[in-house]
Amino acid sequence: MTAKVAASVRAWALTDVGKVRDHNEDAYLVDRKLGLFIVADGMGGHAAGEVASRMAVHTVAEAVRRQASVLTAYQDDPEQAVHRKDLLTLLESAVQEGCSTVYEESRRDIKKRGMGTTIEVLLVVGTKAFAAHVGDSRIYLLRQDGVHQLTEDHSLINELIRRGRMSPERLASVEQKNAVTRALGPYPSVEVDVFDFDLLAGDRIILCSDGLSNHLEPQDLSETLDSADLDAAAQALVDLANDRGGRDNITAIVVAIDASKDDAEALAARFQLRFDHLRNTPFFRYLDYKETVRVLGAAEQQSFTAGALVVTEGEAGDALYLILTGAVEVLAHDRQVAKLLAGEHFGELALIDKSPRSASVRTLEPCEMLLLRRVEFFDILRNEHGIAVKLLWSFLGVLAGRLRDANKSGIRPDALSTTFSDDELTAKTLQEDLPDM
Fold it and tell me: What is this structure's pTM?
């Protein structure tokens, strides 16, 4: 098991009515002890938006607190993939509970019919952050010199841009910029984006309503936080949004991740090793920074002793293995056919094919490996369409390269099914494994 390192969390929050609205429909929560942070932006007539956002924040927070044992289980053994999945499931169910609560209240009181709210939830557990997102409020990650928007707006505008039906340059002429395609409350349930990512010492995470993000460019976040003391960071962001018009309610939570010098170096080294090796793997070379962080969040790291049998010839496989440190040998019928070193990978076609392994892999020395399992891979394909296109394109490129190599080697086309029987990609496999895509 990978050694644990300690990280501490500081946070500052502020909400403001802005310069145009006469009441504030935003709500937020900061629970430093639990590591829970929430921002919600309500919508609806009269005071219904304010009711929706506060109700959602309270319901989600209470749902997480009731399941504190799930957080403890992850803290005790963060390398267990099941604990990570349990935390993501907890956040999704908490947001669904919030959605149902707001919906039932809107049905009970006719004056609140149609009310709803966006929501951003961040839960920091150990050296990992778990997030849930619905609507057009946002979560940003400020890391070193980069600013990364971790969430994708669930808005009509963003959907039109994503489908190529509107250019970003035309946004200024659009009146209904704040029309959302997902929210808590209008319906009894909602589709929730959940994801997780590794934390580094020095990371700053911003949760904000669109009253802030609509007035700022990503670089403004970095410049403001760099120039302001962190104790005044939330105030500085709100002031900047007001200076630029303050057309909506403004809410910002700034979360800072700290660690001792030794732990900070360990966190950075561990992340950079995983990040660099993943980006250098052909299947992930087209991913941007945010997308790579998403894939890393879905992967698990395992340690193996020297002489350990990682995969066994003839047995079914379900994971891609990326060697972070150490070396392995590939054995076919107990004969070494290859040696793989740090930065190399094996088993990638097990992500999309259930055929038995065509060879065994045994460690030659102690190894650390990154595993991406088929179930996690399919979750990415289902929920992250942008990443899915890039990954599938990369897979096709690799497979095409193998076919070209086979043709150069003089292998007859009718022999390909025999030569590649263990790596064969079939329509039947995809039909069985991806029924909802």
Answer: 0.83
